[in-house]
Amino acid sequence: MTEESQVRAFYAGKNFFITGGTGFVGLCLIEKILRCIPESGKLYLLMRPKKGKDISERLNEFPGHSVFEKLLQTESKDIFSKLIPVAGDVGEEDLGLSPDDRRTLIENVNVVIHSAATLDFEENLKPTVKINVLGTRRVMQLCQEIKDLKAMVHVSSAYVNSYLLEAEEKVYETPGDVDSVINLVNRLSDKALDDMEKTILRGHPNTYTFTKHLAEHEVKNCSNMFPCTIVRPSMIVAAWKEPMIGWTCSKVGPQGFLMGAAKGVVRRLPLAKENIADYIPVDVVVNQLLVAGWHAAKQSSGLTVYHCTTSTQNPFRWTMLDSIVSEMLHNYPLKSAVWYPHLQFVPSLFLFRISAIFVHFIPAILLDTLLRVTGGRPILFRLHKNVWNSLSRLERFIFTEWRFHNPNTRQLAAELNKTDEQTFFIDIGTIYWIEYFVNLHLGVRKYLNKESEKTIPPAKTKDGVLKIFHIVWQILVICFVWLIVSKLLGTTMLRCIWSPPVIYFLYTLL
Predict the structure, then answer these.
(1) Which of 116, 266, 380, 382 is 20 to 30 A from residue 35's alpha carbon, by CA?
(2) Is 44 in contact with 17 (CB distance < 8 Å)?
(3) Rounded to 5 degrees, what are φ and ψ at 14?
(4) Are 46 and 90 in contact (CB under 8 A)?
């Protein structure tokens, strides 16, 4: 006889308050609750108007989102009546809630999942403190008023302790007095804050990790009042199993560069391929949020921290894919590719910048010119310029290896019964990374590049044509450089017949 799901039983009849519900994790979380916990109560979603649409219009768009494709195979759109949009913003005083909405939340909510944050590594302190720190403080203030709060789940990041190469599942000493940081942000100009940033951050690589670290202390300060839990995901990537294998709506990390590589516009990638790269599938993150909330509710108060990570349990290194990346790109090419895909890993930013001039910027100029002539919108040069400008801030994350120890998460997985192990899987020990990344690439192809499996045969035909153009282009480049070498040496091209193989060898190093 199948055991009853303990997690599902706990959430039956419980009303949620969710921030960040329109983001990558938030959408997947909402889908999981609707599909796997049909007995749950209402889901109150903190939302703000965006792009000229009010919150009701934004909510009406939910059924058309790809994340709900599986759900709507068995449920009607009536299932979305559980979603209640609440006008507000974590960056505003009192979360921007009206008195009536705040009263509704206080009277009805049982579980709070706080996922909203600004993820921009290049933002200065003002917006990151406003959203990540004060936003969390405002959520915790609301939690203190909620009459029947069973659990508060805070979505943090494994990188909140990125000044350490190894981190445990605990809240580390605050990098600064929270109120002093808030006063500085309120008092100083953006320029003054930028000038003082390194001093304020105290070893943190950017304002994101610094403010997310401070936010954890806002949660810790309330842990003696009601059950709290902090889940720290690493780099969140496409779904492993649910709602669809490879599903994603995020262009961050490997999803973004594989999207560009499949198009043929991203041809070099700076990374230390021997290092552990900590990636965690979005469905595992969502499951862990729900399981952590269930487990926290067993206590009347307290705080447990969980690393939702892979580095110390099932580590991934890019060396695993080194020999199959190009094969993967050509087995499942894009019909919309603009050049023959070929992705190489480069071991330093210096070498990447040299390579980028020849394999990114020069082709981008040529293709953008072609787009202008044909009436298209030139975007490639600007895209590569943005990547170039952001690399200095990302260098530490690209070339540093972290180890996030996860005994709490392993223990949590061990406490699940057989039914919950399958429904709310959080054990990442069985991920086979090569298979996972092939599925991720297919997910990027389908959900980001919007190309169905039906386009694979014509895409392969185009891939063959692009290969011919690519070979011709290489021959032309080599001949052009050969000509220049002969002119510089004051001789004929035949007399420096040694040039083409040397040029080709150097070209392959770029």
Answers:
(1) 116
(2) yes
(3) -85, 140
(4) yes
How many angstroms separate the CA atoms of 458 and 333, rounded? 9
* Percent composition of the chain: helix, strand, coil (DSSP 3-state, to 5): 55, 10, 35
357/467 Cα distance (integer angstroms):
21
In whole angstroms, what is the distance from residue 61 CA to residue 84 CA? 13
Contact 46, 17 (CB under 8 A): yes
pTM score: 0.93
Q: How far apart are CA 229 and CA 289, in angstroms?
A: 9
Residue 258 CA, chain-centre distance (Å), reads 13
Residue 475 structure tokens: 């021959």
Whether 279 and 475 have beta carbons less than 8 Å apart is answered as: no
Among 53-57, 303-307, 380-384, 491-495, the range with the most confident prediction by mean pLDDT is 303-307
The whole-angstrom separation of Cα 46 and Cα 88 is 6
Asked if 329 and 45 count as a contact pair (C-beta separation under 8 A), the reply is no
Tell me the one-letter amino acid at 275: N
Question: Are the beta carbons of 318 and 437 closer than 8 angstroms?
Answer: no
Q: What is the DSSP letter of 40?
A: B
Sign (positive/negative) of CA torsion 209, 427, 68, 244? positive
Give the confidence band of 509 by pLDDT, cuts at 50, 70, 90.
low
* Alpha-carbon torsion (58, 59, 63, 65), positive or negative: positive
Task: Report the chain's C-alpha Rg in angstroms.
Answer: 25
Among left, alpha and beta (phi > 0; psi -120 to 50; other), residue 167 is: beta
3 state DSSP class of 31: helix
DSSP string, 114-144: E------TT--HHHHIIIIIHHHHHHHHHHH
Q: Which residues pair with 16 in a beta bridge?
A: 43, 111
Cα–Cα distance for residue pair 356/257, rounded to 1 Å: 14
Q: Which amino acid is at 104?
A: T
CB atoms within 10 A of CB 69: 15
φ/ψ of 498, rounded to 5, equals -70, -15
Alpha carbon distance 162, 216 (integer Å): 14
How sure is the predictor about 370, in pLDDT bands with cuts at 50, 70 and 90?
Answer: confident
Structural element, H or E, at residue 474: helix 456-489
Question: Amino acid identity, residue 150?
Answer: K
β-bridge partners, 79: none
Closest CA to 168 of 409, 457, 381, 341: 409
